[in-house]
Each structure stands twice: as structure tokens, then as C-alpha cells.
Amino acid sequence: MSKLWGGRFTKETNKLVEELTASISFDQKLAKEDIQGSLAHVQMLGEQNIISKEDADKIAKGLNVVGEKLEKGELSYSIAHEDIHMNIEKFLIDEIGPVGGKLHTGRSRNDQVATDMHIYLKNHTEEIIKLVESVQGAIVEQAEKNIDTILPGYTHLQRAQPISFAHHLLTYFWMLERDKGRLVDSLDRVNWLPLGAGALAGTTFPIDRERTAELLGFEHVYPNSIDAVSDRDFILEFLSTASIMMMHISRLSEELVIWSSQEFQFVELDDSFCTGSSIMPQKKNPDVPELLRAKTGRVYGNLMGLLTVLKGLPLAYNKDMQEDKEGMFDTVETVEGSLQLLAPMIETMVVNHDKMRLATNQDYSNATDIADYLVTKGMPFREAHEVIGKIVLDGIKQSKFLLDMSLDEFQKYSPLFKEDIFKVLTPEHVVSARNSYGGTSQSQVAKQIILAKDKLRKL
Ligand code: ARG
């Protein structure tokens, strides 16, 4: 098949080379963005009288027809035309004749592909921001129902101090809030239009780049044509942000897996988010959080892949850069899919308050509060720590928790213990006493929820 760039060639392309160099199998995902970019470009060409208004109109109409036909599945891509840009140009010429060949005036595939990627990422970043908010909304909803739900808080996965379940869940709200902030910030860099940079050095035609940017809704144009076609840092930034976000999603997923185990039974995921076993009839497996945890790996891989592709490239465009696409598409799809599942999974999970509360009766996680009690009675904290450590050791030996000890037993260790120690011991008191700003007390958590809702309203 004759190539759009075939003029200086005397031989057919080797078939394997054709397969290696073609990107149409994956960059067809950019069809809409490519047409959108071309429509703006051709309108600008017409307005600048670089091509006639009639030709510009014909091309615009032709592009719209190609777009509709593609949507209906009436056209088939050909690997002989390498990528989405040349396939669409070929469809256009087939549709409206040689005048279609005027579309590529003052443009190169190098600025064209960078433009398509910017449009794609801009739209999807905005979509992902909305999805993050839906997960945050689900978290706040569960948190509101669980301000008074008490469970052990852990460090080193050892019981540490009892906390409010709402407080624990809201941790993920704030992680996602920072992820969202990073996505919003990254839009500042995605919002620059490369189109008009040509192959690398600009163009001899009197184009109006600001006008094309305005038509496409971009805030700025790249001021350096070489930079515009040479970098993919806007994609790297997205992949980095996505990696950090997937790390957060993976940690939450890990907790959901642990909490829904027989050993914990803190939550039960809705049946519609779990699967069974082909052999063990009793099984209900938390496949969704397991897979979200695992999918983090491919997103990290995509980041590492593109960092490596770009690291040794001389300026300006190099074919290596065609390898920027699959990782970006895969990351967008992975992140969108994960967030879409996460929101309803959190909304529908059943929180087992009794199991959580019971767990706090069966540990030494009120030990810090008893030390704090002795401090309020005048003992230096370091000394109090030692005394309570001894009581805990004794308790472990006798299989007795601090909650179950008598005043006599406490007083064996210090005369400072009085009847009021029993008020301090309960998990409810332990939680409500942590009333410092950002702490786990019910009133601090209620304030935090107001703040969280405020963040959701702002965007
Ligand atoms: N398919 C190419 C890519 O994705 C488009 C740019 C091709 N430019 C070139 N000079 N071969 O990078």
C-alpha cells in the first residue's frame, strides 16, 4: 500500500518493520482527540488565509464525517498507515479527495501527537478528579455513621490505642485529598498546547497558535517549539501522581482484606463485591480489594517504563516516544476503574461495631491512658511508663487485662491510684480524652468531617 510519506522511497517497507513501527493498534484510542485537534488546526488555517475558507470548511466537514463513520465502525484502520494520525488523514482524503491533503499544512505529526496526548490527559485528569471525589464522598458517608464506633488502632500491626473508626477511615480521605491536589496542580502543565511547533522548529506559515489554543480550550502555548515536541513530562507527572494514589488505594485495600478476614471480622464487604471459590463452598473472597492492591504494580511499572524510555533521548522527537501511550492509557483505565469500584464498595460495606468494640476490651491499648493518669497525679511520665509496664507484664502473666484489675491490684504499684482510675480505663473514655486538634475524640472527628465536607463542596 502506498504511504503518505512514500515520495523518497524506492522500496516497500519490510512487513516486520511495518508491524514494529505501527502504533495504530493502540493509538486508535486517540481518534476523537486527533479529530478535535485537526478541526481547530484547520479552522485556524482558514482564518489565517493559509488555506481558503472553502477548503477549510470542506476539510472540517470531512473530518466530522470520518469521526461519525469511525464511531459507527464503518472504517477499518490499516497498519500500512502506521498510526491514528495518518489513518485519519487517509480516511479524510478518501472522503473528500486531494483537498484533504491540505490539512497537514504547517503541522507535523510530532506536534500533532503531543497535542492529542495533552487533550486526552486533560479530559481524563478532570474525570479522575471527579472519581476521587466520589470515593471521598463514600468515605465521609461511612465516617459519619461511625464516629462512635471504636476499634483498636495499630502501630506495627500491634494494638496501640483505641480509636474512632471514622477517624481511621478519614485518613484515606486526606490522602486522596492530596492526590486530588496533585492532579489539579498537574493540569497547570497539561494546559499548554504544543500544536504549531511543527516537526521541531516551528513553521514558515503565518499560523496563530493562540487562536488554536483558544479553540481547543488550552490556557497557554508552549513557547519553545523544540520543547513542545520533545518532552513527555506532563505524562510522567500524571503517572507519578497515579502511582502515589494507587499506593494509597492499595493500603486501604489491604486493610479491607485484613478486616474482612475471619480473624478480624471488622467489616463485611457486600456480596456483589466478592467472589466464591470453585472448590470451597464456604468461601467469600475479597477479590476486588486484592486486585486493586495488585493493580498498583502495573501503574508503578508504567511510570518506570516511561522514565526509562525518555532518559537518554537527544532533542527533539524520537520514535522512542511512541512508547509513551500504552502505559498512559493503561494507567488512566486502571485508575478510573479502581476508583469506580472503590466508592460503592466503601458505601455498601457493613461495619461490625460489636467485633471492633469487643477487640478493644481484650488488649492493653489503654495503657498509655493509665500512665497519663499517674502523670495527672504528679508522677513524671517516664516513671509512670515504667510502673504501667510492670502492671501490664503482671497482667499478661495472669491473663488479665487492665480493664479487669481491681483498685487493690493497681495500688500495689502506686498509692496514687484512686477509685477514679476506672473512669479512665474504658475505651470510650480513652477515645474521647484524645481531644487535641486532629485527634480521635468524637468531637474532633465531628469537626474533621465538617472540614472534609467543606473540601468536597469547594471543587
Ligand atoms: N505515532 C507517532 C508517535 O506516537 C507519531 C509521531 C510520529 N512522528 C514521526 N516523525 N515519525 O510518536
UniProtKB/TrEMBL annotation:
PROSITE patterns registered for this protein in UniProt: FUMARATE_LYASES (PS00163)
Subcellular location: Cytoplasm
Domain Argininosuccinate lyase C-terminal: residue ranges: 364-431
GO molecular function, one term: argininosuccinate lyase activity
EC number: 4.3.2.1
Keyword Electron transport annotated: no
UniProt keyword annotations, A-Z: Amino-acid biosynthesis, Arginine biosynthesis, Cytoplasm, Lyase
Pathway membership: Amino-acid biosynthesis; L-arginine biosynthesis; L-arginine from L-ornithine and carbamoyl phosphate: step 3/3
Source organism, top-level taxon: Bacteria
Substrates-to-products reaction catalysed: 2-(N(omega)-L-arginino)succinate = fumarate + L-arginine
Occurrences of domain Fumarate lyase N-terminal (ranges): 7-301
Family statement: Belongs to the lyase 1 family. Argininosuccinate lyase subfamily.
The name this protein goes by in its record: Argininosuccinate lyase
Name of encoding gene: argH
